Amino acid sequence: MLAASCATVSMAQDGGNGGAERRGVRFTGGPVAEMNASGFVHSGISGGRSTMDIGANLGGFVDMEITRWFSIQGCMTFQYKSSDFERTGETGRYKYWGVEIPLYAMFHLPLRGGDRLSLGVGPYTNFGLGASYTVNGQKLDVYEKDKDTGLPAMTDTDTGFGFKVGYEFSSGLQINATYRISATNVVDANSSKAKMYPQAMSVGVAYRFGKN
């Protein structure tokens, strides 16, 4: 995926007016590095409070440019997330490792000098590789199935929607910010009573190879 993200494919079609070229679909891409802040939107947990904390994302993206104004962008990042959750006076620490794959419809506004402003929206899916919750020195693997119920405390996948805004310089360097909110209740063992929906904000940089 990351190797493909750095590849550039361009196709030119004859416009039929004196041999002028019309730019067709192009694929560009590059690396992504971001800092995130994550937590949960929750209900049904009496006295519960989620507090966002800091993590990191690292990966790459591929952009399929349809026109100068519009593209479809796919991304894959490996993520570390952390947050605190307080309940009945006790605060526990949640830690998560996983892979996130979003797909954005991107709308671009070309600016002077080759810069551009971009806005995007689209779905994403998280694939959890490991997650834990530690409180009072006791660590719980939230993906481990309970011996009695056969269910884990939390599901290891969730899907939601993301919103992205970015600024790209003529050099290909990008500064991006995203917000993502899950539509999946990740509570598994007690899902009929408690609801927890992951949310995350990210700010970071990317570089798009082959933009010219």
Structural overview:
The protein is an all-beta fold. The N terminus is likely disordered. The protein contains one helix and ten strands; from the N terminus they run H-E-E-E-E-E-E-E-E-E-E. An eight-stranded antiparallel β-barrel has the order 2-3-4-5-6-8-9-10.
N-to-C span:
21 Å
- What is the overall pLDDT average? 89
Uncertain residue segments: 1-21
Question: How is the biggest beta sheet arranged?
Answer: 8 strands, antiparallel, barrel
Structural class: mainly beta
Shape: elongated
**CA gyration radius, whole angstroms:** 21 Å
Adjacency order of strands in the biggest sheet = 2-3-4-5-6-8-9-10
Tell me the layout of helices and strands.
Layout: H1 2-5, E1 9-14, E2 21-43, E3 49-65, E4 70-87, E5 90-110, E6 116-135, E7 138-141, E8 157-168, E9 173-182, E10 195-207
Antiparallel strand pairs: 1-2, 2-3, 2-10, 3-4, 4-5, 5-6, 6-7, 6-8, 8-9, 9-10
Tags for this model:
212 residues, 8-stranded antiparallel β-barrel, mainly beta, single chain, disordered N terminus, 2% helix
Task: Write a concise synopsis of the structure shown.
This protein is mainly beta and 212 residues long.
